[in-house]
Amino acid sequence: MVYGEFFSQSTLYAAVPDFTPKPYAWGTYAADPNIHFFLCAFVDMDEVTLPDPQKFARGLARLHTTTVSPTGKYGFHVATLQGLVPQYVDWTDTWEEFFSRSLQRLVENEEKAQGPDAEMKQLVSAIFSKVIPRLLRPLETGGRSIRPCLVHSDLWDGNVATDLDTNSPVIFDSTCIYAHNEYELAPLRPVRHRMRKEYIEAYFKEVHPSEPGEDHDDRNVLYCL
User: Is 92 helix (H, G, I), strand (E, B) or coil?
Assistant: First the structure.
């Protein structure tokens, strides 16, 4: 877990060093092999006031438009986690396939934790057979294309703050993958979060929605799963 975060933050810092704290090291306590640590630069942050939406959007757009997957595929070099759950990171050729495999892992973990459910099984089947092909396949067919870029992958108001020295947004606690850039916006939709629609709107002033553009809001709903 700690190594995954260190590698995520290192990759993020290499891309946008003014948008995230500099990571220094990770390791394991010599006295206790069950305790691990991660060290990064100290940033004096305002974690109460939400960052300026347009400043945040510009930083995020710079991350997405200047990074390229080293393999040309979707995935990541090392295992990263959403909380305690490992993300799917295997290098995959298409975004539809990568997202499907990632969601399948999430569904399997949920079933292990909560037990099987007939209604859920029916809903999941429809998502994989109808919703995902309808919304994601057009991104990379019919002469359209997207490219995998680096995403933080867990951007909500708990992982975003304002640097008090520069008055600029700062992001941290990343769990990076190379993905469709719009995937990054999923945590900005749920009502339980403080950073919401105005941040999505600010982002699309910097980066146009992928084609078909009319599907972008539906893709955002799908990515929230």
Answer: strand
- The answer to whether residue 154 is catalytic is yes
Please state, in angstroms and as integers, the Cα–Cα distance from residue 65 to each residue in 116, 124, 134, following that order: 41, 32, 25
Number of other CB atoms surrounding residue 119 within 10 Å: 7
- Which residue among 44, 90, 154, 173 is the active-site one? 154
Question: pTM higher than 0.90 for the full model?
Answer: yes
- The tens digit of pLDDT for each residue in 179-218 reads 999 999 999 999 999 999 999 999 999 999 999 999 999 9
Q: Name the burial class of residue 23, with classes exposed (0-12), middle (13-18) and buried (19+) by CB atoms within 10 angstroms of its CB.
A: buried
Cα–Cα separations (whole angstroms), residue 112 to 79, 105, 159, 210, 223: 20, 11, 28, 35, 22
pLDDT of residue 84: 80
State CA 140 to chain mean position distance.
20
